[in-house]
Design goal:
The complex is a heterodimer. By secondary structure, chain A is an all-alpha fold. Chain A contains 15 helices and 2 strands. Chain A has one domain: Orthogonal Bundle (MetI-like fold), CATH 1.10.3720.10. A two-stranded antiparallel ribbon of chain A has the order 1-2. In chain A, a hairpin with a 4-residue loop joins strand 1 and strand 2. Chain B is mainly α. Chain B has 11 helices and no strands. The chains are: A mainly alpha, B mainly alpha.
Chain lengths: 282, 284
């Protein structure tokens, strides 16, 4: 049919980009993960050594546990915070103009540099930072609190700072589609605010929550820069391990790490995708 | 709703204000600290007030190659923006009809969004290495950025065309407009504000992208790579000056985009959606 030929033409640039810069590179990673290497070059081969080394090393296990810990904690905090903010915007702001304005205020930081947003925490959390001088000024502590920066705390804080918006936006989007009469009916039938939220609103934005969760979980699982900067190199996530191997030019080892990471992420996604139909959400 | 001004509303307002403070506070802090005097350090107190560190930024020998990385990032961002708008618009138009393989391509695009950036960076890095092509910020990094911006663009175009009222197109066709005229004179003006949004997203995502640039930019740094390099070896507020400058560029663009989107929607509102033809026959 002529019109479907038109569609193919129109979708060609997108497909070309995806083939050249997504499909081929990922296939390359899979292939190279079975290659051998020495200090100078990659040697085409079919060996399981990279995987064997990876899967039997305690470093890998520890990195996966750390990464899952970051992902879970970040997810929990971004969910509670993101849901609260979205709920406030969707149900407590009546004027559409103010609502739009507040929403834009929430999304602007998403359009600025992640690295700079991470760096911005240093003068606040450092040994002589604002938080510590505040705490000491109030007489709450006599010595600077050390765990504020370069710790699991600062890593998770940065993740929450960077990624809560990814939760706010889809959840807000879902909430705006909820028929207000349902909420009114619940209140008229005697439901408390809490019951309305838990029994009506929460189930109706399941899909938005799932989309937000997909973003947060995959972004945290694949991250290396936040962990590296905010833990000051003290903590190693899966991404950091891969990045280290890249720096040492051990590409096949890094590739094997990337394949295992990919499988882990895909496993998590199949669980989360059960909750949604993405095309319906748009 | 009945509970609008209750204690819950106050509590939520407080949470929201704290959330905004949490979002903007750190950026504001380095904004202030970037105006440290020449003897100032990385934290408070302020040791005088000056533009010393901004001046420092533009002296080439002090902090790597700020000017070069800035212009590379701007140029890269602009090219990514143009391609993101064009490719997403085309793909969005394609998806107004069903075609064979449409959902496969859609899921491929989603995977591109969800896949950890380090995988794409590593994959492109190794692929180019094996093919013997030197990675360049305008080649491999450009493609890597598109894998990140195009999914956003396509999703927005889906949202746009799902809400698009086909009556306007039908009216244009009825009045004898060709397909091209219908697109150029009717469809495009209606979706222009969203296209500006896609362009803004495309530019800023590329301008700030780190992970996908890491292994793909070759021997010349883009701005985020330059900033990352500085975090490890620069211990003066020049880092904050760079950060604040970069953020200011982003803010400027966001402001411009929002403004033009507003102007466009307002102009559209002023014109009634369906106008009577201007040259109506006059009855004598």
């Amino acid at each position: 049919m002529a019109s479907s030929r038109m569609s193919y033409l129109q979708v060609t640039p997108l497909v070309m980009v995806m083939l050249l810069f997504l499909v081929f590179p990922v296939l390359t990673i899979v292939v190279v993960s079975f290659w051998d290497f020495n200090a100078y070059s990659l040697i085409p081969d079919l060996i399981w050594d990279n995987y064997e080394f990876l899967l039997t090393s305690s470093v890998t296990l520890k990195a996966y546990l750390t990464t899952l810990f970051y992902a879970l904690t970040t997810w929990l905090i971004t969910f509670v915070l993101g849901f609260t903010v979205a709920y406030y915007l969707a149900f407590h702001i009546r004027s559409p103009v103010i609502q739009g304005l507040m929403f834009v205020l929430c999304t602007i930081p998403f359009l600025t540099s992640n690295i700079i947003r991470m760096i911005s925490w240093i003068p606040l959390l450092g040994r002589n930072g604002l938080v510590n001088s505040g705490l000491q000024g109030m007489g709450l502590t006599s010595e600077p609190v050390e765990w504020l920066l370069y710790s699991d705390f600062s890593v998770i804080l940065a993740f929450v700072h960077l990624y809560t918006l990814f939760m706010v936006i889809p959840v807000f989007n879902s909430m705006m589609r909820i028929d207000r009469n349902l909420v009114e009916a619940a209140i008229d039938a005697g439901a408390s605010t809490w019951q309305t939220i838990v029994r009506i609103i929460l189930p109706l934005c399941k899909s938005g929550i799932a989309i937000g969760s997909i973003f947060v979980v995959t972004l945290v699982m694949g991250d290396f820069i936040t962990v590296r900067l905010m833990s000051g190199g003290l903590s190693a996530s899966v991404g950091v391990l891969i990045h280290n191997e890249i720096s040492l030019l051990q590409y096949p080892a890094a590739a094997a790490g990337a394949v295992v990471l990919l499988l882990t992420v895909l496993l998590l996604l199949t669980i989360l995708f059960r909750f949604i139909n993405i095309r319906q959400e748009l | 709703m009945a509970h609008h001004r209750g204690p819950l509303h106050l509590l939520l307002t407080l949470v929201f204000i704290l959330f905004l403070a949490f979002l903007y506070g750190p950026t504001l802090t380095i904004g202030i600290l970037s105006f440290q005097g020449p003897d100032g350090g990385l934290t408070f107190p302020m040791n005088g007030l000056s533009l010393h560190w901004y001046a420092n930024l533009f002296e080439k020998q002090q902090v790597g190659d700020f000017g070069g990385s800035l212009s590379r990032s701007l140029l890269l961002g602009l090219s990514v923006m143009v391609c993101t708008v064009a490719f997403s618009l085309l793909a969005g138009l394609a998806y107004r009809r069903r075609f064979r393989g449409d959902s496969a391509i859609f899921y491929l695009t989603l995977i591109s969004l969800i896949l950890p950036s380090i995988l794409i960076s590593l994959g492109i890095g190794i692929l180019f290495d094996q093919l013997g092509i030197a990675p360049h910020w305008y080649g491999s990094a450009f493609g890597a950025h598109l894998t990140w911006t195009l999914p956003f663009g396509l999703l927005i175009m889906f949202a746009v065309f799902n809400r698009f009222n086909k009556v306007y197109e039908a009216a244009a066709t009825d009045m004898g407009a060709s397909r091209w005229q219908t697109f150029w004179l009717v469809v495009l003006p209606l979706i222009l504000p969203s296209l500006i949004g896609v362009g803004l997203l495309g530019f800023t995502l590329s301008y700030d992208e780190f992970a996908r640039t890491l292994m793909t930019s070759g021997s010349f740094n883009t701005l985020p790579l330059e900033i990352y390099g500085m975090t490890t070896n620069v211990t003066t507020p020049v880092l904050y000056a760079l950060g604040t400058f970069t953020t200011a560029v982003s803010f400027l663009l966001i402001g411009l985009a929002l403004l033009s989107m507003r102007l466009l929607t307002r102009r559209k509102r002023r014109q009634p959606p369906i106008e009577a033809p201007a040259d109506e026959p006059v009855n004598y």
